[in-house]
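ingest -> validate -> predict -> emit
validate: passed (alphabet ok, no gaps, 221 aa)
predict: started
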Amino acid sequence: MKIILVGGERITYYLARSFINKGYKVVVIHKNRAFCEELSKTLKALIINGNGSKREILEQAEPMRNDIVVALTPRDQDNFIICQQAMNIFSVERTLALVNDPENLKIFKELGIKNAISTTDLIASLVEQKLSVEEIINLTPVEEGKINITEIVLSGDSPVVGKKLRDANLPKGSIIGSIIRGNEIIIPYGDTVLKEGDKLLLISLLEVQSKALSLLRPEAI
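emit:
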């Protein structure tokens, strides 16, 4: 069995290194030649330079039924095509697609990509691993300028202090990915009460960032 990683950047490197260390055979497909050359120098893996959403490129990885194909590009449509081709042309039984737009998650699953993970879920997972905000930004393969990640500390006069998260009225396109409260990392739910001193990881689309910040910390804008 081998693991085929398509697209992505730094997260692809870290995943490949982790899988190799666990004894898996790894193939990386990436269209950036310089990135491929860098990987070939540092990883004991087959590196293929090309667009993994094209059949002839994916075919070079020789995907088999018991392999795993992971699509990590910043374009949801490419990730969908990669997984569809792996399943329908090469009979790969296990695929995983990164979904950059959370609204596409349901569509992916309805169209047969059962193992799809949204960027926000990925960020929450990284938070649980206690990575820094800078590391999370570097590891998250989102389209440049599409999603902003902002760290906010709630002051005592914040209008959301004492409220449940569901009552904070954050605009659509923004979520709180995590709350750091003292030494505790909390993955919040709707009934999580926000407290003074909470450090929030705000994940928002560019167009709603200012509105979200104004609700959480008016002096931030």
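DSSP finds eight helices and ten strands in the chain.
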